[in-house]
Amino acid sequence: MGIVVLTMKASVIEMFLVLLATGIHSNKDMTKKIKRPKLTVPQINCDVKAGKIINPEFVVKCPAGCQDPKYHVYGTDIYASYSSVCGAAIHSGVLDNSGGKILVRKVAGQSGYKGSYSNGVQSLSLPRWRESFIVSEGKSQKGVTYPSALTYSSSKSPAAKTDEATKAYQKPPVPGTTAQPVTLTQVTGATATGAAHASLPKPSPSAGSTSSSLRPQPVGLRSRELDLWATSTYTSGQNSPRADPGIQSQDSPRAAFQKPAGTQVSPGFVPKEELSTQALEPLSQGDPNCKIDLSFVIDGSSSIGKRRFRIQKQFLADVAQALDIGPAGPLMGIVQYGDNPSAQFNLRTHMNSRDLRTAIEKITQRGGLSNAGRAISFVTKNFFSKANGNRGSAPNVAVVIVDGWPTDKVEEASRFARESGINIFFITIEGATENEKQYVVEPNFSHKAVCRTNGFYSLNVQSWFSLHKTVQALVKRVCDTDRLACSKTCLNSADIGFVIDGSSSVGTGNFRTVLQFVANLSKEFEISDIDTRIGAVQYTYEQRLEFGFDDYNTKSDILNAIKRVGYWSGGTSTGAAINYALEQLFKKSKPNKRKLMILITDGRSYDDVRIPAMVAHHKGVITYAIGVAWAAQDELEVIATHPAKDHSFFVDEFDNLYKFVPKVIQNICTEFNSQPRN
Questions:
Q1: Residue 536 phi, psi (nearest 5)
Q2: What is the C-alpha separation between 91 and 77, in angstroms, rounded?
Q3: CA 292, CA 357: separation in Å to the nearest integer?
Q4: Which of 218, 447, 522, 591 is the most buried (most CB within 10 A)?
Q5: What PROSITE patterns would the database entry show (predicted)?
Q6: Among residues 335, 402, 343, which one has the least CA distance to residue 372?
Q7: What mean pLDDT is predicted for residues 38-49?
Q8: DSSP classification of residue 382
């Protein structure tokens, strides 16, 4: 009996061991067959902003081409959540323009974000924002699981699906708090009202009217007003359904919006938290690649008619939108003309495209004649002033729109505008036919008015109904600041080298008078590193560079440098001084600058001046020769650029030098403005 028991126990143990072994092999086989699922990385578009994604940390894949400036980025290293995710990744150097994977982590909002230029992306500054994020390489951290699908704050995002039964919304995490999700539930039939009360959060009345999402009825509207308001609400968005009153709003005593039986609550409903932040979204600072001060001079004459005037206003609104108006980019004002011109608003009135479009819509037609010449004079004298927002550092541009032809002359007014540095563009719509040309007051008026006659500044439109097609062409031209030739005036486009006689015959007192004359001339010019630059050489038998074109770039610094020039005393070698100035000053002149040499002497030179003067003229240096007291007039005429009567001056006494400042400036500007405009 005992033997039998032992045998049974042995059999059980043996069977257990067999089963155990079988299980181990089976588990090994299963381990071999089961593979860890591969991480799916969500893809996003270049325009997706971090604030639209609810997830606090995620890995995404960016497409190529996100370096485009239309994808705005705010901040440096730490970015406001209103930034393009992929644009920020390129700015930070994590990605290049070919795209790729990145890791994004949300952090607390900052009190300020500083813009910078990095890796081909210009980020913008922002005073403050509610949430930030940082970007790093798209490598998953050990032990961290990242979402394979992103949760967006609105169903407009590519991740939203219209057939989902529920939608969860969660506020971006704030340090020290725990965000609670809000669930939006689909409802049907008779239960719609109750479900809406239980699950729909109370919308914020501060939401902008641009939202296409379902919005509650404003309290206090009469029934007719409510119908109109509801219709406008639902037709304003591309995907918004028509309104159907019925649902009792959670916060309104009046009827709000209820879907009929069998319909669903729109998945496009935006929760309160999202709506309440839309008003905080920063307005654009403007396109920095198109920093211009722009005046549109529009035709409000009776002949244009109401319909075409509306087309003109729509054209202005489209241009305002395309330009991306802002303090760091283009600013735009409008002058309307009929019998007389009137400013509708100036450069500083509306600082973004949205407000500008609204203001354009409110413009009413003046009527009267089509006095465009009078309007151009008004713009030159009144519009581009500092009080009206003219920044000085931005080119002045005036775009004149004419229906047919003006009823006054524009040539003289336009010449004065060009000489003031205003770039005149003309848009002529439905110009005169051959039979009508006999009625035109000034033939070829646009040719006489524009900044250059090479076709760049003129647009001829056959019909008012084709005007909208010129928006992009016009925007491209006015933003091409390198070709805005009229921005360069006689006062802001030269390298001026003073060559000053410091010989013994001048004397200390008279030398100070000469320096005051040099300072008085310099004051007349717009001085900066991109405008007019000033340099000075003093000579006797020898020559000395007092300061070069690159040494000082403000007017005050130049005037102080002139005061510090010390009297040298010695002989008079004017020819050698001209050669020295060509080598030490004008050899370093910028290619796009006019080169002006202003030489001041009180006697005949000990050396030959003919060859050095010819070399200066050959190198394109415009030379003005100013002689005092014992200076030889025949020598002054040799030194001066042809015609000598416009470039050489003789003063009998040093104390009378100051009288010639206006004449020298006038001749410099007259010569500049006489250049051909082709």
A1: -150, 140
A2: 8
A3: 18
A4: 522
A5: LCCL, VWFA
A6: 402
A7: 88
A8: I
Is the Cβ–Cβ distance between 231 and 239 less than 8 Å?
no
Report pLDDT digits (tens) over 136-188.
988 777 778 888 899 988 644 443 333 333 333 333 443 443 333 433 333 33
Position 485 scores a pLDDT of 81
**What is the tens place of the pLDDT at every residue in 97-124?**
999 999 999 998 887 788 888 888 888 8
How many Å apart are CA 541 and CA 525, to the nearest integer?
Answer: 31
The Cα–Cα gap between 36 and 53 comes to 27
Residue 546 tokens read as 């007092």
Q: How confident is the model at residue 418 (pLDDT cuts 50, 70, 90)?
A: confident
- What does CATH list as the number for 50-137? 2.170.130.20
Within 8 A by CB and 6+ apart from 78, the residues are 107, 110, 113, 132, 133, 134
What fold characterizes domain 494-674? Answer: Rossmann fold (3.40.50)
Residue ranges covered by each domain of the chain: 50-137, 293-483, 494-674
- Asked if the domains 293-483 and 494-674 are classified in one and the same CATH topology, the answer is yes
Amino acid in position 83: S
CB atoms within 10 A of CB 328: 16
Residue the block writes with tokens 């609104």: 317
Compute the distance between CA of residue 297 and CA of residue 382 in angstroms, rounded to an integer: 13
Q: List the structure tokens of 480.
A: 């091409």
How many Å apart are CA 467 and CA 310, to the nearest integer? 12
What's the Cα-to-Cα distance from 251 to each of 218, 219, 240, 243, 271, rounded to whole Å? 10, 9, 22, 18, 14
pLDDT at 154: 60
Which run of H or E residues covers position 664?
helix 661-673
**CA quadruple 413, 415, 418, 419: dihedral, nearest 10:** -110
Percentage of residues in the chain having pLDDT higher than 90: 56
CATH fold of 293-483 reads Rossmann fold (3.40.50)
Contact call for residues 398 and 374 (beta carbons, < 8 A): no
SS3 content of the chain, % helix, strand, coil (to 5): 35, 20, 45
Instruction: Identify the three-state secondary structure at position 335.
Output: strand
CA dist., res. 388 & res. 333, Å (int)? 9
Complete DSSP assignment for 503-516: -TTT-HHHHHHHHH
Question: Cβ neighbours of residue 643 under 8 Å, at least 6 residues apart?
Answer: none
Phi-psi region of 611 (alpha: psi -120 to 50; beta: other; left: phi over 0): alpha
Structure tokens given for 510: 């008279």
Question: For residues 476-488, b (16+ Cβ closer than 10 Å) or e, as one string?
Answer: ebbbeeeebbbbb
**Cα–Cα separations (whole angstroms), residue 628 to 501, 579, 602, 643:** 10, 21, 5, 20
Contacts within 8 Å (CB) and 24+ apart, 232-236: 236/209, 236/210, 236/212
Q: Can you tell me whether residue 135 is helix, strand or coil? A: strand
Which distant-in-sequence residues (6+ apart) come within 8 Å of 50 by Cβ? 79, 81, 82, 83, 85, 88, 104, 106, 131, 133
For 386-431, the DSSP string reads GGGT--SSS-EEEEEEEES--SS--HHHHHHHHHTTEEEEEEEES-
The 3-state secondary structure of 610-659, one letter per residue: HHHHHHHHHCCEEEEEEEECCCCHHHHHHHCCCCHHHHEEEECCHHHHHH
